Amino acid sequence: MRIEYDRDTCIGMFQCVAEWDGFERDSDAGKAVLVDGEERDEDLFVREVPEDAELDAKFAARSCPVDAIEVYDDDGERLIP
Predict the structure, then answer these.
(1) Residue 11 to residues 2, 19, 33, 51, 71: CA-CA distances in angstroms?
(2) Which end of the chain has less Cβ packing within 10 Å, N or C?
(3) Rounded CA Rg of the chain
(4) What pLDDT shows up at residue 80?
């Protein structure tokens, strides 16, 4: 499973941070940070989700009020949103 995070879309509600420790708060920027995320494009970060964290990652994506987080299965099918 992979997670993609669009930092530009993020509005800094930090609900993802409360749901999964794969996100951290960047109070200075007013945005979340995807821990160990690889920058694929300007403000688009991607990382593989450990198997034991998949449920929390899904909750983090679902909690985002602006859909800045997407989750994909191993076949590339979008699961969330």
Answers:
(1) 22, 16, 12, 28, 19
(2) C
(3) 11
(4) 81
Does residue 81 fall inside a structural domain?
Answer: no
CB under 8 Å to 59, separation ≥6 — which residues? 19, 20
Nearest to 37 by CA among 23, 56, 54: 23
**Residue 29 belongs to domain with CATH number:** 3.30.70.20
- CA torsion sign for 33, 72, 46, 7 is negative
Domain that holds residue 8: 2-73
Q: What angle do CA 65, 51, 24 make, to 5 degrees?
A: 40
Answer for the pair 22, 53: CB distance below 8 angstroms, yes or no: yes
